[in-house]
Design a protein that fits this description.
Blueprint: H1 6-20, H2 32-45, H3 49-54, H4 64-83, E1 92-94, E2 97-98, H5 99-109, H6 123-129, H7 138-144, H8 149-152, H9 163-168, H10 170-178, H11 183-196, H12 199-209, H13 213-252
Antiparallel strand pairs: 1-2
Helix pairs in contact: 1-2, 1-13, 2-4, 4-5, 4-13, 7-11, 12-13
Length: about 260
Amino acid sequence: MMKFTAKSLIALFVTSSALLLTCMRSDAQVNIKILTRLAENCRNSVGSETYYQQILLNYDNPTIKDVEKCIAFSYHHLFVLSRFPWLNSQGEILPGYRSSIVVARLVEQYNINNYHYVGNPQLLDCLVSQNASSKECSKVRDWIGNGKVRDVFKGGHYYSKLDYLVYICPTCVVAHDEVSGSGELILKAFMEWFMKLDKSQRREVISLLGDDNKSHQLRALINEESKAAVKQYRETRARVQQQEQERRRQELLGN
């Protein structure tokens, strides 16, 4: 498990309960019940060395940063599914690689207000080309591939484009590395999946990943929601730690 101090472990345990009692008022309205469940799930999964061993990653010192990333990506993915629930039943693009994860990953990266933003990926032009190796698809290939996970993943204090897979979809990590993280092969599988959707579903995917202002605004909203969820978790955890410190102080003073 994570090598926390006793105080940190107590705080993490109490935080999940405290989150249920918190009423957040902000531009991004975080669903506290969902956040509480995700916080507990993330602590029990990515907080364990065994989790990384099972997906063949050499990482033996998980920290609170890993839990926070897991919360952010999990909340982000669920928010995408809440807007487009049919995505959850659209299967896989590759064995073990859920289609909803690919779409949500692109949403997380493809946002003009996101610091990972590296220019217009021209997704629609790429899909129109129907050729994963075309020049129109160069940026999408980079985003969707980016090499093997085990070669780039370094843990919570570092960022890689593949963190989304690590923290919420371990089977996706295995599927990704089985094709050596080839952007072309993964994109080809995604394009084949996309073309099998009915017209209304394809329009919805484009409305989420398109280049127009409405698409940008929707992606920004989804990304801001996930950031707000982590902010809420940090604030609640800090408050719980402070309360625990004060309790110990009072005990020490005999009060």
